Amino acid sequence: MTEDVRDPSGDGIRCMLMRGGTSKGAYFLTEDLPVEPAQRDSLLLRIMGSPDPTQIDGLGGAHPLTSKVALVSRSAESGVDVDYLFLQIGVDQATVSDAQTCGNLLAGVGPFAVERGLVAPGDETTTVRIRLVNTGDLAIETFLTPQGRVDYDGASSGTGTAIDGVPGTAAGIEIALSPGPDARLLPSGSVSDTFNGHSVTLIDNGMPVVLLRADEFGVAGTESPAELEERIDLKVALESIRLQAGPAMGLGDVAHATVPKMFLLSPALHGGAVSTRAFIPARVHTSIGVLMAASVAAGIRIPGAVGADIAALTDTGPDLIEHPGGTFPARVQVQLGDDGQWHATSISTRTARKIFDGVVFPRPRL
């Protein structure tokens, strides 16, 4: 009998398009994609329409925030429900990177797991324990499932949750993040380091970021992402620091990586804790990612860290992290442990929405 070889270009691949937080991506069951990474990546590039600055022939939205993929599977790890692998798909380059995770797409992982039958829903709410494969961190996600169905709208609770950067309201999803066993909040071991004459704080509370003073780079903190992207001198200066920060954070050569992210901090303008502009790393984020906000919020709570002296903090939180699209409420606690190291825990509220569920047809070749 001849083996039936499935042609994904002709038969299509099961896919759910979802908005997670302030990002949008394609969600897949890991089992529906090739096991071999090179074959998998080639398929995902064809699905997303890369490399092409418009991604006109695929699902991608011509921006890093809309060229993302989440792979979800049942977890073999004790006490964990599902594994989540995040892949950043290049827009105008044929790249697929697992060097970072995405806290925004993370918001959709729990609902997706219920939709695909990986986790049985509760009658009112469901809690899903998620292992972030990229980082080893653990996320505990709780969301509404009235009568065993995911409520994306929030109607069952009588109210919706609004997050800046997304129009309207949707059902709130609470995400509690615990760092992995090998995680270090300050990867270099120092609260402050110096590169090219600039004091920086290297911090990783779920996302590797570099904190810098905006005024040292002629940035007021009121500029739009488009205005900052036009400043070639600024991009060159930040990239030089980023290339030095990568090895110091244990990330190795980051010349072709999307981490660490570069954050310019300035005093808050709208009653928040601090104002941010984030290079991710070539484009400027139109808002802020969940884990980026968690890392910034942890950094500004450490005495001596860059931004701590200009941050307006409250005793109880949350800390409102200002960004180009509004504010992000980050609930982060930091403490100095008996081991002499700083540690952090964080809780955030995001929303997600199922946009499309069906099959996607990749173009036949790159």
Automatic annotation (TrEMBL):
Entry-linked InterPro entries:
PrpF-like (IPR007400)
List UniProt keywords, sorted A-Z. Answer: Isomerase
Coiled coil regions, renumbered to chain: none
Q: Name one Pfam family in it.
A: PrpF
Q: Where is the signal peptide?
A: none
Q: Which domain of life is it from?
A: Bacteria
Q: Which Gene3D superfamilies match?
A: Diaminopimelate Epimerase, Chain A, domain 1
Q: What family is this protein classified in?
A: Belongs to the PrpF family.
Q: Which PANTHER family match?
A: ACONITATE ISOMERASE-RELATED, ISOMERASE YBHH-RELATED
What name does this protein carry?
PrpF domain-containing protein
> In which organism is this protein found?
Microbacterium terregens
